[in-house]
Amino acid sequence: MEKSPSTCLAITGVTRGLGRALCDWSVAKGHTVYGCGRSAEAVAELNAKYPAPHRFSVVDVSVDAEVTEWIAGCFASAEKPNRIVNNAALINENAPLWEVPSAEFTKLMKVNVSGVHHVIRAAVPRLIKAGGGVIVNVSSGWGRSVSPQVAPYCASKWAIEGLTQALAEELPDGLAAYAVNPGVIDTDMLRSCFGSSARASPSPKTWVTRAAPYILSLSPEQGPVSVTVP
Ligand SMILES: NC(=O)c1ccc[n+]([C@@H]2O[C@H](COP(=O)([O-])OP(=O)(O)OC[C@H]3O[C@@H](n4cnc5c(N)ncnc54)[C@H](OP(=O)(O)O)[C@@H]3O)[C@@H](O)[C@H]2O)c1
């Protein structure tokens, strides 16, 4: 299932959680990773740990200009990304929808939905020019079902599912888009909504041994769009 070592990934949200695990796994397997996140400290640590050809940048995906510059830099590198993983996201603090502050709702949508759009706007024309590639939009079980207390997050992931379905119909041959439900994994995000019971779920390190080969196996010939890490 694993792709050749020539896979070059651009991954958002590599400073923690699933993005970090995917980054560590990919580098260890000989793939090239361009990653981003907001934490300057974590980005500096990644650049020290994984020198060139890998590269890590401080980018807030909700800011179109920052994403445009980051993606342009990735594609100006000797090795061009051929797999884009839109992983960065936020979850709202548990609350019924009518108690969620407007600013929190807006910020979540700007990261979880607009952030993905910013990356697609910048990357897809370059992937088309290169003749192929795969776009992986990290979705959620809450992109296909719902739970109380996390309505803004559910809304954003249902948006990711719809956006990805439509994108897949727009892409030319040789490019494919997938909305990938990663499962339930013990990260900062899960602890925010599940509390201490998050510990019962697998760690990102355990998850990645199943998830990364699966994510790298997703074909540039479009298959079913909404998929789940086995
Ligand atoms: N964990 C689960 O069980 C689960 C289940 C279903 C879906 N997911 C999805 O899986 C993905 C990863 O989640 P996770 O559990 O690993 O979450 P996490 O531990 O909270 O990590 C989120 C990552 O996104 C980055 N990020 C957040 N806002 C950003 C922004 N504005 N710009 C750039 N980077 C940003 C964070 O880094 P900085 O803080 O440094 O920016 C961090 O690296 C998300 O799309 C999430 O919705 C997770």
Give your account of this protein's structure:
The protein is of the alpha/beta class. The protein has one domain: Rossmann fold (3-Layer(aba) Sandwich). 46% of the residues lie in helices and 15% in strands. It is built from 7 helices and 7 strands. A 7-stranded parallel beta sheet has the order 3-2-1-4-5-6-7, sandwiched between helices. α1 crosses α7. The longest helix is centred in the middle third of the chain and has 29 residues. The chain starts with 7 loop residues before the first strand and ends with a strand. The mean pLDDT is 97. The structure holds NADP nicotinamide-adenine-dinucleotide phosphate (NAP). The site of NADP nicotinamide-adenine-dinucleotide phosphate (NAP) has 31 residues, from α1, β2 and α6.
At a glance:
With 230 residues, this protein is of the alpha/beta class.
Share of helical residues: 40-55%
Total helices: the number is 7
Second CATH tier, the architecture: 3-Layer(aba) Sandwich
N to C succession of SSEs:
EHEHEHEHEHEHHE
Tell me the name of the CATH class: Alpha Beta
Strand line-up in the sheet with most strands: 3-2-1-4-5-6-7
Count of individual beta strands: 7
> In whole angstroms, how far apart are the ends?
13 Å
User: What hetero molecules are bound to the protein chains?
Assistant: NADP nicotinamide-adenine-dinucleotide phosphate
Number of domains: 1
Determine the strand fraction and express it as a percent band: 15-25%
Shape: globular
Pick out the low-confidence regions.
Answer: none
How large, in whole angstroms, is the Cα Rg? 16 Å
* Largest sheet features: 7 strands, parallel
Would you identify the CATH H-level superfamily? NAD(P)-binding Rossmann-like Domain
Give the overall pLDDT as a whole number: 97
CATH topology, which one?
Rossmann fold
Which structural category fits the helices and strands?
Answer: alpha/beta
